[in-house]
Amino acid sequence: METPTRGNIHIMSDAAFQPIVDAEISTFTSLYKNAKITPIYLSEKELASAFLKDSVQVVVSAWEPTDQQKELLVKTQTIVRTTTVAYDAVALILNKENKDSLFTYENVNDLFTGKLTDWKELNPTSKLGKIVAVFDNEKSGTIRYFRELFDLKNPLPSGFFSAKTNNEVIDYVSHNKSAIGLISINYIGNKHDSTARANTDKIKVAAVAHKYLEKGSFFLPEQGSIYNKTYPFTRKINLVTREHFRGLGSGFISWFASEQGQRIVLKSGLLPATMPIRMVQIKK
User: Fold this and answer.
1) Is the Cβ–Cβ distance between 207 and 101 less than 8 Å?
2) What is the CA radius of gyration of the chain?
3) Residue 155, Cα to own-chain centre: how many angstroms?
4) Mean per-residue pLDDT for 103-132?
5) How far apart are CA 271 and CA 267, in angstroms?
6) pLDDT tens digits, 42-64
7) CATH number for the 88-227 domain, one of 3.40.190.10, 1.10.3470.10, 3.40.50.620, 3.40.50.970?
8) Which whole-number Å values give the CA distances from 268 to 56, 88, 131, 195, 217, in the listed order?
């Protein structure tokens, strides 16, 4: 019999959030020995399609069903519940030898609209040439996020191409001086994790100015700047369920949003969504 702490289920997650999902499942199943949760990592578009077709009961994603999709699900007597468990930032990563690590909000907008194509347009003395923008997947939530943010209707500029994973984005940028990568901070934010530290050592993280704040102020994608909204490219991480009874999926969601689950979020470098945050300013 399945309960909130017992059973065997599959969930689907956006591959961008694999590190935090792996960490949460590992701790949850170590506490509840009779619970087995198998994650399947896909692009956002693929998991959203599977969820709407009733192929999976729980998904982890920046996506959540639209009002229209919810209405259609209600007609099939399906109630969808969304719980925001964390806030992520989309980081702009650069090759370590790239000296141009400050971007305005408009610079990033111009990159996506094809107005910014060469590093000389940012720095006339740059010798890096054409900008190569690399992201994880053509069906990814990262690209959907920027399409909606910048109201993009046209195909991405020719300087963009997709790798397959966030790790491959990091690897490509580390070997190509002219590249700029787009990844979740989930892959570089956990200072306690050896893989995240190794990823961070390979690349440089760009600071971005917020379009509504004082000019000349640039912010890194860190917990503090996500919390006070000074870093401009942030998004929710949601757990979305269509489970019709209180089973293991509901139990995992409740635990993820609890103090124990949120402490794992905090340690990962993401911003917890359901626990109070204390900001500490350190004076040098």
Assistant:
1) yes
2) 20
3) 22
4) 95
5) 9
6) 999 999 999 999 999 999 999 99
7) 3.40.190.10
8) 26, 10, 30, 12, 26
